[in-house]
Amino acid sequence: MMDPLQLYSAHLDGYQLTRPETMRLSKWIAADPKNADAIVGLSYLHEGIDSRMCLPEMLDELADAEDPELRAEITQSLGQLWDTIEETGRVSLDAAPSNTRNTAMWASLAAVAATVVVCLTGYALMRPKQPQIGNVPVAAAPSEAAPQLEPDATDRASEQPTERPARLVATIEASLDAVWSRDEPPEVGGILIQNEAIELQQGVLQLRTNVGHTLVLQGPVHVKLESAQRAHVLRGKVSGLVGEHSGSLEFVTPTAHVVDLGTEIGVGVDEQLRTLVAVYDGAVEVSSRNQPGGDKLTVLAGYETEVDHDGVLQDSPQRSRHNRAFVRTDEVALMQGAAVGQRDAEAQARFFALLRSETLLAYQSFDAASDGQLHTFGWAEPAMRRYGGRFIATDLTEDPTAGRGSLRMGPSSRAFANLDLSDNSRIADAELLSDDGLVGGPGTEIWVAWRSQATTPAHDSETFAGVSLTVSDESNSFETFVGRIHQRQAIGLQLNQGGDPPIRLKYPIDFDSGTPDTQTRDVDSELHQWVVRVVYGESESHVSMWFDTPIADVADQPPAVEQREMVPEFDRIRLALGNDVGHWLFDDLMVAESAEKLAEAAQLLAQPVAQQ
């Protein structure tokens, strides 16, 4: 039985592996990183010998050469190579040097010679020793100007070189919940050959090409590797990290050609055959496949561009909103860590999945390590401004990996999160802005959700605590407030109309609609879920709130309070506590344009990373 390297070497030379041999080789590669390195090293050696010392390759170069000096040099090399091979066939094994150093050199040369002989075999079979007409041999003229006779169809068929076996181009480094579109797909450590279809229905696959590039495929995806340096992306998303000293990396899509200039990039093809290119490091050149020789667009790190289904390039790249449109190699490592119970890895991977999902317009996780400045998006800088007694506490969830922390606030404290309303923001792209540049354009709606918990009882029955959608840091501004409403010791909705003294329209929740009077309830020490929907109509607006309704059910459940009033536009969210109200925790502040997207985001935050 051949050892794994002998078996793989035989495969490179054209031997067709059996299914048990393939499984044995794959398990051996996956067992130790050194084994995978040995496979890659053997591929390098085979590729180098095959491409540099194979006679058909040299003949191809001779046919294409136009420089007389180059043609003479190749012709001389061919003659020397042929003489060497013929001489090699007459060398006796007894002639090999006996000392150790020379023996190793002899073995290496013998291996090279053997490879060259294999290369020559296919060519020698098509190189007749003498010209033929039909099946009748004809003596060759001694002169160099031998007559060029046309063989018949039978001989032309026999002169075609045999098809060379497909070469290995990559190995599978990681597979995370990957579901292939074929039976018996390769496993981790498995090998992928040239032009083999790689089609996933879901999951993530990380590949290492035999020249050192790393590719991450995110299902659903369909890719073919033409070589270790050139990938055809037919559908779905692929990110590529160029290996050190590994040469170039190219991507070909139905409409575009992408060439790296030393980089980490993402390339995707959607259902309409549009190509998205995002650059994370270095730069790329993008050109249209429908316009050969046309303009090339250079895209730098931090920017992205599209090529439409007709192959039309954008005039200039656009700044990327974030750097997680594609699953990248560092995220694969986080997913692997999450799979073995690493909580920080789980939380980070969940955040990346949420960021990439485009479900939310803004999100604040209240990350403890960064004081709320990281693992958040959709806000103007800084991501959170705070005044008064407050700090980041533990996360408000039974699952400690779901988030990164919560905001703990004390009496008379305030915190502000200003929304990003710039031209490239998510909210601007969703066309939710009014003529004044605030959230609340006519015919739009917006959803805001958060969780809270009162950790100490209130000493003042008339004080407030909750969340406002506002345009000012002042407490008497025109705003929508939800929480423990002013001077009512009750949970509900409050519309502040501004003024001095301020006008406050209060709508407490009726917890028993079967009785004639409104049955209110004060905030307790339990964890509560809040959802607010604001609809800005052409002539009138209205606001609705849900209390302790699961986000997944909000679209199908009636609100706890709904009022049709003049609802103010807003550009920031304020979290605030009045005097002697005790301490509160706030967590998972989310902004979305629909209940469905809000529910999808909540699901992403709750489910295991492997299922995302």
What does this structure look like?
The protein is α+β, with helices and mostly antiparallel strands and 612 residues long. It has three domains: 4-92 and 101-127 and 154-158, no CATH class; 168-319, Sandwich (Jelly Rolls); 341-611, Sandwich (Jelly Rolls). The chain contains eleven helices and 31 strands. The strands form four sheets. Strands 3, 4, 5, 6, 7, 8, 9, 10, 11, 12, 13, 14 and 15 form a 13-stranded mixed β-sheet that branches. Strands 16, 17, 19, 20, 22, 27, 28, 29 and 31 form a nine-stranded antiparallel β-sheet that branches. A hairpin with a 2-residue loop joins strand 6 and strand 7. Helix 1 packs parallel to helix 3 and helix 3 crosses helix 6. It is elongated, with a radius of gyration of 34 Å. The two termini are 43 Å apart.
Compact overview of the structure:
With 612 residues, this protein is α+β, with helices and mostly antiparallel strands. Helix content is 24%, strand content 31%. It has 3 domains: 4-92 and 101-127 and 154-158, no CATH class; 168-319, Jelly Rolls, CATH 2.60.120.1440; 341-611, Jelly Rolls (Sandwich), CATH 2.60.120.200.
